[in-house]
Known about the structure:
The structure is a single chain. The protein is mainly beta. The chain is built from no helices and eleven strands. Strands 2, 4, 5, 6, 9, 10 and 11 form a seven-stranded mixed β-sheet that branches.
Amino acid sequence: QVQFVESGGGLVQPGGSLKLSCVASGMNFSIYTMGWYRQAPGQSRELVARVFPTGGTMTKDSVRGRFIISRDNAKKTVYLQMSSLKPEDTAVYYCWGRSNYQEDYWGQGTQVTVSS
């Protein structure tokens, strides 16, 4: 059974930093495309960043240069380092994984709130 457990969310002031972690289990982590999505109140869920089995990444334009996604296959963990946070980054952040059979899996979400 594929499971993701996220951590690292919280309240931070504008300009601050947070690092999200997602630990996976029940899967061959190294062959999954992993990523982070977010959903703000009243908004649809949107892709933030992805990291591919090759290690290549893609990042949403509005967070590029501020957010960095990475993975550690030995630890079955994907990270999202967030810097220079803005109030508009406030959302629930979800860990996501896609198998090579195009099956999608989701974590339970972790709240990130950027406010003074």
